[in-house]
Amino acid sequence: MAFFSKKQTKKAEEVDFSNLPRHIAIILDGNGRWAQQRNLPRTAGHAAGAETFRKIATYCRDIGLEYLTVYAFSTENWKRPKNEVDTIMSLLEKYLYEAIDRMERDKVKMCFFGDTTVLSPELQELIARTREISLHYEGCQVNICLNYGGRDEILRAVAQYAQEYKAGTAPELTEESFSRYLYSAGVPDPDLLIRPGGELRLSNFLMWQSAYSELYFTDTLWPDFTEADINRAIAAYQHRDRRFGGIKP
Ligand code: FPP
């Protein structure tokens, strides 16, 4: 833990930009409560949340973050009222249309974690186009988790491995080889996992990948989340002592 004298006290959001986490994961939570506090429909909270996502993703790209993963729609979110689900899906469509337009300029690589085969044909088409266009970009990689559940991801990976095992083509089973069966294949585990919105749980997000992630919880509702909030989270991360089960040398 760094020690600062009174004179040198660092501001909570003071970040060492030369030593950023490689991968930040965020649970986009608090949209509904943000809307309720303003007597607005929950869907207005999701629209505000989508704007915040744009702002934070742009900021992460600008500071040179390598990977950003966001939990936008879980396998459990289908239980919500139809108009809320429809609104989230159309906000995603709108976001992807704009992202495709700006991709050449932004050079952000976009990937999707989750079973996207059940989404509308329009959304699937947009996802396919986004994937294809951004395939060769090497800037910040933004992973959007859609119809994603951590347990579901692990079960699918096990099923795929078992199939290959039966066919005699499976590799030796190690943590490293198993990781290649997950949606996140090739992506390093998140160093920092942020949950705004005040809840203290992971809600089935990146269950395998978050084994050693540093967790950061804040009461700020996602639509209110700013660059200063992500700086605070990164600064807190930079003061953590990561030992991965070992001891300090
Ligand atoms: C959780 O807040 C949020 C969601 C289930 C949806 C998140 C979706 C978006 C921000 C829109 C589109 C996303 C992108 C990436 C463009 P909640 O509704 O559970 O909030 P509450 O806990 O306050 O009710």
Query: Helix segment count?
Result: 7
Number of strands: 6
Reading the helices and strands in chain order gives EHHEHEHEHHEEH
Q: Which percent range fits the helix content?
A: 40-55%
What would the average pLDDT be, to the nearest integer? Answer: 93
Ligands, deduplicated? farnesyl diphosphate
Please state how the strands of the largest beta sheet are arranged side by side.
Answer: 3-4-2-1-5-6
CA radius of gyration is 19 Å
Largest sheet: 6 strands, parallel
Give the amount of beta strand, in percent. Answer: 5-15%
Characterization of the model:
The protein is of the alpha/beta class and 249 residues long. Helices cover 41% and strands 14% of the residues. It has seven helices and six strands. The protein has a six-stranded parallel β-sheet with strand order 3-4-2-1-5-6, sandwiched between helices. Strand 3 (109-113), helix 4 (121-134) and strand 4 (141-148) form a beta-alpha-beta unit. It is globular. The two termini are 15 Å apart. Bound molecules: farnesyl diphosphate. Residues 28-33, 46, 49-50, 53, 70, 72-73, 77, 88, 91-92, 95, 144, 197 line the site of farnesyl diphosphate.
Topology summary:
Layout: E1 23-27, H1 31-37, H2 42-63, E2 67-74, H3 82-106, E3 109-113, H4 121-134, E4 141-148, H5 150-166, H6 175-179, E5 192-195, E6 214-217, H7 227-238
Parallel strand pairs: 1-2, 1-5, 2-4, 3-4, 5-6
Bound molecules: farnesyl diphosphate.
